[in-house]
Amino acid sequence: MDQHSFCDALGPEEGNAVLRDHWDTWITEDTFQQMADREVEIVRLPIGDWTLKPYGPYVGCTDGAKDKITWLLDTAQRYNIKVLLDVHAVKGSQNGFDNSGIGNRTIWTDENNFSHWEHAFGEWMGEWDNDSGSYKSINQDNINWAKDTIQGLLDTWGEHPAVYAIEPVNEPWWASDLDTLKSFYRDVRAMMKEQQPRLKFVFHDSFHFDGNTWNDLFADDDHENVVLDTHQYFAWWEKRGDIGLYCDDYGAVMNMAQYVKYDVWVGEWALATDVCATWLGGFNDANTDANRECQRVDCPYSYLSEHAVDFDRNAERLGPYGSSGLNRSHSTIQKGKCPIDSAYYSDDQVMRLGQCTLDIFNGTVEGHFMWTVRNELEPRWSYTSSYDMGWIKNKSENKPELIQ
């Protein structure tokens, strides 16, 4: 569930109580100890643009977020771990996905059914006209709000020793108006360069990973501390047979980095080779068919310490239902079982995939971040589990820095 819907449904008091329980339980000092023990050098911290200036249902619901981020930065500093502040969600939704803070244009047809993916548009920049495939106009107020968000980050944490980089917007969708996006990027980088020149300016490629699109963003003699962020997953690819085919094709994709004049970071990747992970396509929804039959395992019990509530583990299928997921079994929990990645590839094959991926990164990019540090169900989506399973080599075997 996206945070806008969460706060709207629970209200400011109950929503805030649950969020505080989550913040205090999900990432603790022990998490940082585990990361340090596993050679993590930098983490990417996703935050919403409401963190310092809440609006709408976020008012009250997200109280305490600023203090928790300060705690996280202080803790990271103690463990010599750097932090990339990633503005993961912006007003209006930069991509229409739930990870933008709101599943944009979600329509409820009744209390048990909704539709989203059919009209999931990124409208941070302005109102989208799907008939013409363009924006009716540019919403400069939202653009200015996003710039002010960065100013707030610089004012609040710009001098914190743990802060290493700032990314002003995560995954602006592929249909973004690139002239507007580039202007926004240039303005933000100018702010950072003037106020905190030590920080790296990280910009997402808007799902256009090629030098021809981005090499004109900054002059050839003016791109110090500029990093292009690209997100490259196996999960949404068409299925392959031998695991080595993923390695071959991934290497071909990552070789595109040689045509980008900036440093390149892979800001998100994982070892999953299918879209089976519970709610990967949104809460009780899915916009992509699974390549192979998903495994099902017992759903975990809540990790919350004070606000844990269980569900009916005997229910045939738990609603409400997204229209795109109705005919996709992996979209919902069934009889207390949660879907996870296909068992088609053995642990040894996943290790082969992990090792070839790191070899590819070492030859093509300056850093990479696995999504995510921990996961309740999916070791292929978990850095600590993947490390402990031996699927990803440690730094002593890979000379360039390993970034999580």
TrEMBL record:
<dbReference type="GO" id="GO:0009251">
    <property type="term" value="P:glucan catabolic process"/>
</dbReference>
<keyword id="KW-0378">Hydrolase</keyword>
<dbReference type="GO" id="GO:0009986">
    <property type="term" value="C:cell surface"/>
</dbReference>
<feature type="domain" description="Glycoside hydrolase family 5">
    <location>
        <begin position="23"/>
        <end position="272"/>
    </location>
</feature>
<protein>
    <recommendedName>
        <fullName>Glycoside hydrolase family 5 domain-containing protein</fullName>
    </recommendedName>
</protein>
<dbReference type="InterPro" id="IPR017853">
    <property type="entry name" value="GH"/>
</dbReference>
<dbReference type="InterPro" id="IPR050386">
    <property type="entry name" value="Glycosyl_hydrolase_5"/>
</dbReference>
<dbReference type="GO" id="GO:0005576">
    <property type="term" value="C:extracellular region"/>
</dbReference>
<dbReference type="GO" id="GO:0008422">
    <property type="term" value="F:beta-glucosidase activity"/>
</dbReference>
<comment type="similarity">
    <text>Belongs to the glycosyl hydrolase 5 (cellulase A) family.</text>
</comment>
<dbReference type="InterPro" id="IPR001547">
    <property type="entry name" value="Glyco_hydro_5"/>
</dbReference>
<keyword id="KW-0326">Glycosidase</keyword>
<dbReference type="Pfam" id="PF00150">
    <property type="entry name" value="Cellulase"/>
</dbReference>
